[in-house]
Amino acid sequence: MSPGNKSKKYVLWFNEIGIEDVPLVGGKSASLGEMLRKTGVPVPNGFATTAEAYRYFIRYNNLEKRIADVLSELKDPNDTKTLQSVGARIRKMIVEAKMPPEIEEEIKKYYAQLEKEVNQKNPFVAVRSSATAEDLPDASFAGQQETYLNVATPEQVVEKVKECYASLFTDRAIFYRVQKGFDHMKVALSAAVQLMVFSKASGVMFTLDVSNGDRSVVMIEAGYGLGEYVVQGKITPDDYYVRKSDLQIVKKVVSTKKIMLVRKPEGGTVEKEVPKELQDKPVLTDEQIKELAAYAIEIENHYGKPMDIEWALDERDNKLYILQARPETVWSMKKPEEKPAEAAAVTKEKEVICQGLPASPGLAVGKAHIIMSVDKLDTFQPGEILVTEMTAPEWVPAMRKAAAIVTNSGGMTSHAAIVSRELGIPCIVGTASKGKPATEAIKDGEIITVDAKLGVVYRGALAEVVEKKEEKVAVAAVAESYPVTGTKIYVNLGEPELAEKVAALPVDGVGLMRLEFIYAAEV
Q1: Domains of the chain by start residue, with CATH
Q2: 3-state DSSP percent of the chain in helix, strand and coil, to 5
Q3: Would the pTM count as exceeding 0.85?
Q4: What share of the chain has pLDDT > 90, as a percent?
């Protein structure tokens, strides 16, 4: 099919699209097609509605001006109440609009073809949003639009596609586009309709260690049931680390997993308790861990960059499937670090309040502000430390103002952890898996120090963190005034202890560092 014909279609099979079609079907749908066509990894089949279908839906219902008029009321994206009001009204407008008959007919025709493929009436599918500006290499749009699981019947699929369209205007998506300078009306949405994996286990994996950027390993997170609870941070999943060079498992961290999200036979999902005998056991066998790592390496080799991948284990055939893959957006922007620096020891200067997983490295001091509901986000002040049960995408406005974030639940690849790393905010997750939950251990309003390199929270302010904070502010102020140059700039470093400070300057690296100075200072 020629590109010209493609761009005019409302629906396309996964095997008709590839990574070159991101403007047409968004990053998620394009990646599914790319993997299905050009790699050996197992990907469930399906189809995608196109950006042209979305734009026609908007034109058909005369929605563009109405949406723009409502958006014009949002003068400040940090105004949480107005943001929520604007988002809710636009979503209602879209959900209540009529799907054009031409698009509805196409969706139902393609769904009928899936019925024939699996020889089953009304097969269950997942309907995933894929924005055309989503999954760009310089930003993490993860979790901004909706995914609907265990959907059946042609009518339900059409309705969920429309709800995906509405999710282009969730509060978090509106806020993020304003922050990134995207034009709301130039972003379109594709819906990926994919045969459902009946997941008895699922999760996320990265082709690097997300805590330090080490590209020599594959990091896998796993939980029971559907993967939404891993991504959302509602559970603290297992962590497995596999060395790429020989597929050896170098580290396992098995967490207690008390709940899981499972599919209902009649459609939809429900939360259930994990059987007690499984709660503290590894979700995957060693063979399954290595199989997943091999798929991750193949995907990374195909794309030529670090990748963020979702996977599932099907209860029917006990096979592993890849559900989506997108570029990793934080460490891929930085110089690879094959050997992570050794962490410092826990200091005895202050009392340790709680511990968790170091999801986004860094140090911060500030006033703890415990918030348990999104409705209270407007009380959060810049420079405070956000302490909560879990952070969700709706919390991004507050996360941007936070000096650090500490949560009771969640794993290293939860959405909150990913966004924290992108924002450069120290973040500790899963404190409940290491002892007392943060929201119980920390007193609201007290001054605390967050060491997200070690995953430790101290009571009071550590002097060294306060000093480093003052240094960084001074360096950043100088760095911002420097022009961008075509010539690479290197520094001569004489004092090894100034390395971190110099690293914040707008330079390309160290040109000279005399060995005898290092010996004098460190040996």
Answers
A1: 3-195 (3.30.1490.20), 199-333 (3.30.470.20), 352-466 (3.50.30.10), 482-522 (no CATH)
A2: 40, 25, 35
A3: no
A4: 64
